[in-house]
Amino acid sequence: MLSKEKLDRINQLANKSKEEGLTVKEQAEQKDLREEYLQNVRKSFKNQFKSMTVKDPEGKDVTPKKVRDLQNRNKKH
């Protein structure tokens, strides 16, 4: 998870970008922070995805094959 300071900085840069624009250095910083944020979101989503199961109304496991494969690969590591 991203630190509060980094999230605050992302928001500061976004607001500054809207109000007055960013310097080249700030644009690069914003790009790096956004990429780090997206990596964290993807990692979190993937972890949630690994632990999910899907059941039909009768209680039968109908978890998609891709999810089961991902879960099985995770168990081997």
Structural account:
The chain is an all-alpha fold and 77 residues long. It has one domain (4-76). It is 71% helix and 0% strand. It has helices spanning 4-19, 24-50, 65-76. Helix 1 crosses helix 2.
Key features of this structure:
mainly alpha
User: How big is the Rg?
Assistant: 19 Å
Would you report the number of β strands? Answer: 0
The overall pLDDT, averaged over residues, is 91
Could you tell me how far the N terminus lies from the C terminus, measured between alpha carbons in angstroms? 22 Å
The SSE order reads HHH
Main sheet makeup: none
Q: Number of helix segments? A: 3
Q: Which stretches of 5+ consecutive residues score pLDDT under 50?
A: none
Question: Strand percentage, roughly?
Answer: under 5%
Helix content: over 70%
Count of discrete domains: 1
Outline: elongated
Write a concise synopsis of the structure shown.
By secondary structure, the chain is an all-alpha fold. It has helices at 4-19, 24-50, 65-76. It has one domain (4-76).
Give me the secondary-structure topology:
Layout: H1 4-19, H2 24-50, H3 65-76
